[in-house]
Specification:
The complex is a heterotetramer, with two copies of chain A and two copies of chain C.
Chain A lengths: L1 E5 L2 H6 L3 E4 L6 E3 H7 L2 H6 L6 E4 L2 E2 L7 E3 L3 E5 L6
Parallel strand pairs in A: 1-7
Antiparallel strand pairs in A: 1-2, 3-6, 4-5, 4-7
Chain C lengths: L1 E6 L5 H10 L6 E8 L6 E8 L1 H18 L2 E9 L1 E3 L4 E9 L2 H17 L3 E7 L2 E4 L4 H8 L4
Parallel strand pairs in C: 1-4
Antiparallel strand pairs in C: 2-6, 3-5, 3-7, 4-6, 7-8
Classes of the chains: A alpha+beta, C alpha+beta.
Amino acid sequence: MATIVLLGKLADLADAPSIALPLPRSAGLDWEGLKAALPTPLAEALDDPRVRVAVNGALLPDKMKLQANAGDEIALLPPVSGG
Amino acid sequence: MATIVLLGKLADLADAPSIALPLPRSAGLDWEGLKAALPTPLAEALDDPRVRVAVNGALLPDKMKLQANAGDEIALLPPVSGG
Amino acid sequence: MRHIRLAHQMFIPGTLIGPFTQANPGLGGVCTFVGEVRYDQGVEALELTHYEPLTLPGMHELADRAFARFDLMGLLMVHRVGLMRPGEPIVCVSAAALHRRDCIDAVDFCMDHLKSAAWFWKREKRGGQWHWIEPRAQDAADLARWQG
Amino acid sequence: MRHIRLAHQMFIPGTLIGPFTQANPGLGGVCTFVGEVRYDQGVEALELTHYEPLTLPGMHELADRAFARFDLMGLLMVHRVGLMRPGEPIVCVSAAALHRRDCIDAVDFCMDHLKSAAWFWKREKRGGQWHWIEPRAQDAADLARWQG
């Protein structure tokens, strides 16, 4: 299992702040695999180049090269608006 | 009589924050007349173009065109350093 | 003196600045910015979410960059997360330095980065409905001032 | 809300900012700069003199220009005159606005003008001797940023 954490409006697209993604211990998860496993509106939103991805708290320089495994926390980060 | 108010380091040159300048009620005072009536080091300091002059609280656009009379307050204002 | 934290509850900026100023003896100037939730048309509440593994480390990295870029004695950054009402403070940034230019510019720099390069997401409640706040072009322009 | 005055005695900036913020309900941000007498090499005291007929009217004109130039809700300027010791506040400028850029820039603008275009003269006492502080080239450069 991997945990998908959804920030900002991405959480609305899944109606939840996180998703538990079943993932066999031996199998890896790549970018296309992640998108295929998510609800379609959320998967489509991830194509926005401003959406960043972090695995276990580390930002990926290139989200397309995602390589995650069971036990990982994958955060999906839309454009920020703080202050 | 006219009152000369000396600000900043100009007060040091006269050893006083102000000078009472005898001036007949009928006589006027121009820029050269003012300088002639002041101690030499002070008169020389006034030539610094950064020194401004106010008469009765109003800044003169051109101090060389000073026209003062008995009863006036003439302020001599060296470069400022506030804040 | 460095004081960087997330506030999960309402905070009073005035109670931060006195101790911060005292903690930087010999300073020539201290500049402070406080941002509050505006009473915008019909805004009932504002919520800031963050991503814990990135947000506070990101604020510390921002502080590192401010210390590297400006001649600072101290830097305070307190940022609210959670649910806020109009009038409540969202963010307080304060910088202490020998000279005014460094502390004013450091506050400006930190605010521009907190606004559009820190890991916060903001939504507003209007008419009982929540609306996510999108980043504004002005925020990107403000940020660009510090690049290059 | 406009609060402009000369302070002839020591003041506590923290006691000004709370009431100033309260007096501008609906603000989005408030920026405050406080300048203090630095503990510079052997400085025992600092004295600021001013010319009453020009100084306060000049501060009000400066406030007019800040209100014309920036979108402000409130502006506070309190400037000490007289004898001060290291660690005492000299000046406090605070600006309240809907948006952060206006209030930060207004404080920056007012400080640059108070520093080199307001009617104050400063001298320091070192080793028992008073020395007048000359304007610095940096001050003129800071001021020039706002021209044209």
